[in-house]
Specification:
Distance between the termini: 26 Å
Largest sheet: none
Number of strands: 0
CATH architecture: Up-down Bundle
Oligomer: single chain
Bound molecules: heme C
Strand content: under 5%
CATH topology: Four Helix Bundle (Hemerythrin (Met), subunit A)
Length: 148
């Protein structure tokens, strides 16, 4: 039940529909695979907070632990968006590389929002609003820079 709620809420964010056959990242160092794995780790911390808020099962300590882990993971994906790493199986759009200033601005908004969330994680109402601000930064960046 909780799972269903969270998947519904996040389907739009992460594009969980219809993945098709998996293409492997065969390049040395696997930059695409590595950054996708990093985003999945971020999601694994982000999702349970959303479930707690949406199902009114917020508890300060578990929520704060997820916010702390999200804070620790927030820098992981970005170093793996190197030049010349727009190849299958990436879901990134070419705009990541053609509009680097905008990508960087959206990244910084996400960084700021995760910090704000961590700061208020033990106060349910403040955490709710800070959580959805983070959510909006994920969504805004995905809309512009991530395909399906
Ligand atoms: C500044 C831009 C940006 C922000 C902010 C951002 N993402 Fe992403 N995200 C991307 C891009 C680009 C990709 C595609 C990476 C690739 O496939 O090479 C991606 C991929 C993902 C994936 C992997 C999807 C898949 O099918 O492999 C997940 C999960 C994800 N993001 C979750 C999140 C969550 C949750 C947040 C917020 C807490 C977030 N992202 C914030 C740009 C962003």
């Amino acid at each position: 039940m909780l799972r269903a709620v969270s998947l519904m809420a996040l389907a739009g964010l992460v594009g969980l529909t219809g993945c098709g056959a998996k293409i492997e990242d065969t390049r040395p160092g696997k930059p695409v695979q590595t950054r996708q794995d990093a985003f999945h780790e971020i999601l694994r911390e982000f999702e349970p907070m959303g479930v707690m808020l949406r199902t009114r099962t917020y508890q300060a300590e578990p929520f704060a632990r997820h916010a702390e882990r999200l804070f620790e993971l927030r820098d992981e994906p970005w170093p793996h968006f190197g030049p010349d790493t727009h190849y299958p199986p990436t879901k990134a759009k070419a705009e990541v590389w053609s509009q680097p200033e905008l990508f960087e601005r959206q990244r910084l908004e996400f960084i700021a929002a995760t910090e704000a969330l961590r700061a208020v994680a033990r106060d349910e109402e403040a955490a709710r609003s800070a959580y959805f601000k983070v959510y909006d930064t994920c969504k805004a960046c995905h809309e512009r820079f991530k395909g399906r």
